[in-house]
From TrEMBL:
Catalytic class of the enzyme: hydrolase
Name this protein carries in UniProt: DNA-3-methyladenine glycosylase II
Coiled coil: none
Entry EC no(s): 3.2.2.21
Matching Pfam families: HhH-GPD
Source species, domain of life: Bacteria
Catalytic activity of the protein: Hydrolysis of alkylated DNA, releasing 3-methyladenine, 3-methylguanine, 7-methylguanine and 7-methyladenine
Alphabetically ordered keywords of this record: DNA damage, DNA repair, Glycosidase, Hydrolase
GO MF, one example: alkylbase DNA N-glycosylase activity
């Protein structure tokens, strides 16, 4: 689920952003045009791994507005949104907040993975992107796309290329192929010039479709 991020929620800005922008503007004609349009705006994080993933589960297959409504109701249930507190919640109360049976199961599984140490959270900084994705997709309700959004928006990894993201494909079509249909292979070829800052280029491609920055 993507939602507008408020300044008060901002806790970090990527250390590599300025260098990435210089690199992209030098290497790519579209980036040279796009990047200056958005001034100082850049990728930002909410700063809480569990909350980021929980929000992504709540927002699956429903509109952004509906997802925010359900999240707001759900977030009132625990005293603080932590894995241990979520595990103490009653299923009926979670369902009453607007969560489906399946999403309740997903949130419980997510909380269990955090609570029982199945996730190597403290080691993530030193782990590769694919290693982290493998850990996350073992959680029910989390697929590769969600894991890649987590790498970009929470861990702020600089070189993630989410080829399953409709917005990225649509944006590449719009900016590089005059709105012609784009394949994953086409997208990968375009992104070859973006490395090692594919996450940053993806963020600007998203902004070309929706100027309002989002957070997960």
């Amino acid at each position: 689920m993507a939602t507008s991020i408020k300044p008060a929620e901002t806790v970090a800005i990527p250390y590599f952003w300025e260098e990435a922008c210089k690199h992209l503007m030098k290497k790519d004609r579209v980036m040279k045009r796009l990047i200056p349009q958005f001034g100082d705006a850049c990728l930002q994080t909410r700063g809480d791994a569990f909350v980021t993933l929980a929000r992504s589960i709540v927002g699956q297959q429903i509109s952004v507005k509906s997802a925010q409504t359900v999240w707001d109701r759900f977030a009132l249930l625990p005293r603080k949104m932590t894995p241990a507190n979520v595990l103490k919640l009653k299923v009926d109360d979670m369902r009453a907040a607007g969560l489906s049976v399946r999403k309740v199961e997903y949130l419980v599984d997510l909380a269990l993975h955090f609570d029982n140490g199945a996730l190597h959270v403290k080691d993530w900084d030193g782990m590769g992107d694919e290693e982290i994705i493998a850990e996350l997709v073992a959680i029910r309700g989390i697929g590769r796309w969600t894991a890649e959004m987590f790498l970009i928006f929470h861990l702020m990894r600089p070189n993630v290329l989410p080829l399953d993201d409709d917005g990225l494909i649509q944006g590449i079509s719009k900016n590089y192929f005059s709105d012609d249909v784009v394949s994953r292979s086409d997208a990968r070829e375009v992104a070859a010039a973006w490395a090692p800052y594919c996450s940053v280029a993806t963020w600007y491609i998203w902004r070309s479709l929706d100027p309002l920055p989002v957070a997960y």
